[in-house]
Design brief:
The chain is built from three helices and six strands; from the N terminus they run βββββαβαα. By secondary structure, the chain is an alpha+beta fold. It has one domain: PDZ domain (Pdz3 Domain), CATH 2.30.42.10. The chain has a four-stranded antiparallel beta sheet, covered by helices on one side. A two-stranded antiparallel sheet has the order 2-3.
Length: 135
Amino acid sequence: MSKVAVKKLHWRSRAQESFVPLVSSSGELGIAIGGGADYGEFPFVTAAPGGGITVGDIILEIGGTPILGLTLGDVRGLLNSCPHPIRIKTVSPGSTLCKDLRLYLSKCFTPGSVDSQLQQVIRENLYLRAVPCEY
């Protein structure tokens, strides 16, 4: 008997866009986030109202701006400055794209691939917060 090779879908094909409204009674945003480059993690959802976004999803973009590699404070600042409802692109973590930012950056991908381009975006965002220092 031969085994049928099942090709896994790339994480990019599982990405989804959702709109997050304000919670009407308190004026707060209906989503909470954790992670961030300062914790060595991708930004991810820690509380969500539903409607497509799930707790644990990795946040790729907020309002069309790629946020991977930004600190948690920068991501929260972007969330607070976007017009409402906020358009957020997320993806469920998997074997290639998990919450560990350092692990993803340590992997080798084919130059020009989606993953290689994403690594470049992450590095550029990380370098925004790097402070040169001489010894």
